[in-house]
What does this fold into?
Amino acid sequence: MHIAFLGLGGMGQPMAQNLVKAGFTVTVWNRSPASAEALRASGAQVAASPKEIHGADILITILADDAATENVVVEQGALASLAPGALWINMATVSVAFTEAMDALTRQRNIGYLAAPVLGRVDVAAAGNLNILAAGEAQWLAKAQPIFDVLGQKTWTFGDSPAQAAAVKLAANFMLASAIETMGEASALVEAYDVGKGDFLGMMTSTLFAAPAYKNYGAMIAEDRYTPAGFTMKLGLKDVRLAQQAAESKNVPMGVAGVLRDNYLDALAHGDEQLDWAALATVSARRSGQKPKA
It folds into this structure.
């Protein structure tokens, strides 16, 4: 099986590396060539451009957003380089509308399309322990499963329409952002009464909220540890906006999403664009006049 892997950012690099280690023939491309060259040393082939992936049975992309994905795959010719019967697996978090458009485009070209965004940060990707949220036709899911087995600890399937997985990922990221926001607000409250947020979050994440998302982000908030960013504030804002768009298209009210959007804008207005999205928790503290601990 010949895999073309486009997009070697924080998540893509370790994912492509794991596929090389698993013995797949992998051709990689990245806008910044250094990441691709690092994989060449591990045995990957390096394409000079997205369109130079001839012979690939499967195309995997994990790019920043709708625009970047369309530019690389459609405008720069990656999709046109695939033969009929090939499969495109989009593992990025993109909009439902874009997913539907790409599903229609690939059908016109007799190419399979799966949406398979992931849950997990860079360290989880490196360990091959991602949770993969997949949707698409059964034949394509079956073809992709050996790849998913390398990249993730579990594949969660949500239907035969790729848009379903796109919606699930946006809903999941909305919930994560909401958890960060509530931990930030609650921490600001207890600190106003001279209770350390580390003590408070340590208690909460060991009792009522003893789940990975709360534990991991709670520790970051307790320590004001927002660099290096595993997922930036700018990307957090993007995903909240995409969730709002998906909700509006189905007449689903999401009041909390509006609060999150405004608070991300507040953070970006204060120069926090490149911090980890866990820094959303600092907005409530700043508004209440609290200073980060040195």
About this structure: The mean pLDDT is 97. The longest strand covers residues 152-157. The domain at 2-160 is CATH 3.40.50.720 (Rossmann fold). The chain has two domains: 2-160, 166-288.
